[in-house]
């Protein structure tokens, strides 16, 4: 997946010793070992990554790319002129690529408060609006970087329900008392509900009949690849459901069979498969 709005980096494996060529609508620049660090700096500048987080990611990517180049890979900086299918080629290696236009959605996070048994208004989520910028940064890297799907923050605020809802929050309580408080100015509203026992994904639910609201647990009980954050994976998972719904979900995708990938029901990760990339960016 190559975004139309900025250059991207593409690695062609087992293509060393051959002059690379690009298909319709693409222009390429080959990057040698000495240029990897600067190329990564330019690439990562397109994401909201700072400090040790960006340095760590740059170091990991740089090490992996240099190893691939040493083993016969070619790193290319790719610019595109229009959306659609194209290709990259070097020797016998040919890689099909798709150039996509960005999808940008405004997102609001609401942090649930309700009455306890004594009538006190208390938060039921341990999440805080101060965490939201880091979540947006994670989403940029997972969905922006892999599928050209981006989220811009509209609001992050508490929502106070003047009644006891019980814990965990269930579908009935959510539909009856919570969903109506969605942000009408946002494309999608995510409600942080503490503990969740509703239908759908173990840690959250996107409500297809409502179309633009998500209920999300603080600590989703889902298996993820080691090193991945279950909360961020679940947030990305439910937002993928939102985007598929927004796009019309013509392939009727609910979950994928791919192990260790986003949107599967087994061991999930932040990896967006080529199939899911295309589904999120239908031609």
Structure report:
The protein is an alpha/beta fold and 283 residues long. It has two domains: 2-100, Immunoglobulins (Immunoglobulin-like), CATH 2.60.40.10; 103-280, Collagenase (Catalytic Domain), CATH 3.40.390. Helices cover 27% and strands 28% of the residues. The protein is built from six helices and 13 strands. Strand 8 (103-115) and strand 9 form a beta hairpin. 35% of the residues are buried.
Please outline the major beta sheet.
Answer: 6 strands, mixed
User: What is the chain-wise order of helices and strands?
Assistant: EEEEHHEEEEEHEHEEEHH
- CATH domain fold name of the largest domain: Collagenase (Catalytic Domain)
The CATH architecture category of the largest domain equals 3-Layer(aba) Sandwich
CATH class of the largest domain: Alpha Beta
In short:
This protein has 283 residues and is an alpha/beta fold. Helix content is 27%, strand content 28%.
How does the SSE layout of this entry go?
Blueprint: E1 2-3, E2 8-12, E3 21-22, E4 26-31, H1 36-44, H2 51-70, E5 74-80, E6 84-90, E7 93-100, E8 103-115, E9 121-123, H3 132-147, E10 149-161, H4 171-178, E11 188-192, E12 204-206, E13 213-216, H5 230-246, H6 274-280
Parallel strand pairs: 1-7, 8-10, 8-11, 11-13
Antiparallel strand pairs: 2-5, 3-6, 4-5, 6-7, 8-9, 12-13
């Amino acid at each position: 997946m190559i975004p139309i709005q900025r250059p991207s980096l593409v690695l062609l494996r087992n293509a060393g010793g051959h002059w690379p060529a690009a298909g319709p609508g693409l222009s390429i620049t080959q990057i040698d070992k000495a240029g990897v660090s600067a190329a990564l700096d330019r690439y990562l500048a397109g994401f909201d990554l700072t400090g040790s987080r960006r340095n760590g990611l740059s170091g990991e990517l740089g090490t992996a790319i240099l190893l691939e180049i040493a083993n016969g890979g070619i790193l290319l900086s790719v610019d595109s002129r229009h959306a659609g299918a194209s290709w990259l080629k070097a020797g016998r290696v040919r890689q099909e690529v798709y150039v996509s236009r960005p999808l940008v959605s405004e997102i609001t996070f609401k942090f649930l408060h309700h009455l306890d048994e004594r009538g006190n208004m208390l938060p039921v989520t341990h999440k805080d609006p101060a965490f939201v910028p880091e979540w947006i940064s994670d989403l940029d890297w997972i969905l922006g970087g892999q599928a050209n799907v981006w989220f811009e923050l509209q609001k992050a605020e508490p929502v106070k329900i003047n009644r006891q809802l019980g814990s965990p929050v269930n579908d009935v309580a959510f539909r009856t008392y919570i969903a109506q408080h969605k942000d009408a100015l946002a494309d999608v509203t995510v409600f942080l509900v503490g503990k969740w026992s509703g239908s759908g994904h173990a840690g959250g639910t996107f409500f297809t009949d409502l179309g633009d609201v998500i209920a999300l647990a603080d600590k989703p009980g889902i298996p993820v690849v080691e090193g991945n954050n279950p909360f961020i994976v679940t947030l990305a998972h439910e937002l993928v459901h939102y985007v598929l719904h927004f796009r019309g979900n013509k392939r009727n995708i609910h979950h994928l069979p791919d192990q260790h990938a986003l949107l599967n029901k087994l061991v999930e990760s932040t990896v967006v498969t080529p199939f899911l990339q295309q589904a999120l960016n239908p031609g």
